[in-house]
C-alpha cells in the first residue's frame, strides 16, 4: 500500500510539472511570435516644433509651414502588386535567366540611360506579406505582426498617422485607382477614387483595365497632386497560374506597355512650363511572391 501511494504521488507531481511547462511554453509563444501592436491616434502637424526632432536644428524651425520644402510638384505612384525583384532587374543580375525576366524593359532602359535621375532599388518588405498589411506598413511606416494576418480579409480604417493623411492635411489633392484596399484603409481622403474589388483572384483583368481606363486620361488633368494606381494582374496571375506561366508573362508585358505610355506622356509634358515639368514617377511593389504565387510569409521570395 505504501509503494502504491508513493507511485501515485510521483505521477501527480509529473503531471503538474508537464502542465506547468506547457503553460509556460504557450505563454512564451503568444508573447513572442503572436505580438500585438497598439495604434496611437496621434498626428504630426506642421505647427509642431521642428526642434523636437534630432534631424532639424533650431534654425529650421518655423511654425507657419512644414519643416522642409518639397523638391517635386507632383507624384505618380504605380503599384504592381506582388512585384518580384527579378521582374524588374536585368536577367544579367542573376545566375540563371528565367522566362519571366526582362519583361519590364522600359524600366531597365530608364535606369541605364537616365543616369542619376532613374534608379532600380531592391526593397525588403517586413512580413507578413499580405497586401493589406504591406499597404498599411507602407503608408504608416509601422511593422505588422503575424497575428494581424487574421484581419487581412477586412481593412479597418487606419487610425494612426500616415502619409496619405499628411498629404491631405497639407492641402495636397490625392487620387487613387485600382485595389479597393486603399479606400478601406484611408476613407474620405481621396479627391477622386476609382476602386475595384481585389479578392477575386481568378479575375486577372478587371482591376488592371480599370487602372488603364483612368490612369492615362488623369495624367492630362491638373486637379491632382498625387496619383496612385494599384494594379493586381500579376498578383492574381501568380495565385492561379504561378510565376512561370503564360498568363504571368502576358501581364508583365501589359505592365511594360502601360509604363511606356505613362513615361512617354510625362516626358512630353516635362518641358519648362509643362504640366509635368517637376513630376516624380515611383514604380514599386508591395511584396513579392513565391514561384507558386504565394505570399504572406517571410521567405526571401515573398519579401
TrEMBL record:
UniProt record, GO biological process: GPI anchor biosynthetic process
UniProt membrane topology term: Multi-pass membrane protein
Pathway per the UniProt entry: Glycolipid biosynthesis; glycosylphosphatidylinositol-anchor biosynthesis
SUPFAM superfamilies cross-referenced by the UniProt entry: Alkaline phosphatase-like
Membrane-spanning parts: 13-34
One Pfam family it belongs to: Phosphodiest
Compartments in which it is found: Endoplasmic reticulum membrane
GO molecular function: mannose-ethanolamine phosphotransferase activity
InterPro entries: Alkaline_phosphatase_core_sf, Phosphodiest/P_Trfase, PIG-O_N, PIGO/GPI13
CDD domains per the UniProt record, alphabetical: GPI_EPT_3 (cd16023)
Keywords recorded for this protein, A-Z: Endoplasmic reticulum, Glycoprotein, GPI-anchor biosynthesis, Membrane, Transferase, Transmembrane, Transmembrane helix
GO cellular component, as recorded: endoplasmic reticulum membrane
Family of the protein in this entry: Belongs to the PIGG/PIGN/PIGO family. PIGO subfamily.
The protein's name: Uncharacterized protein
Protein source organism: Fagus sylvatica
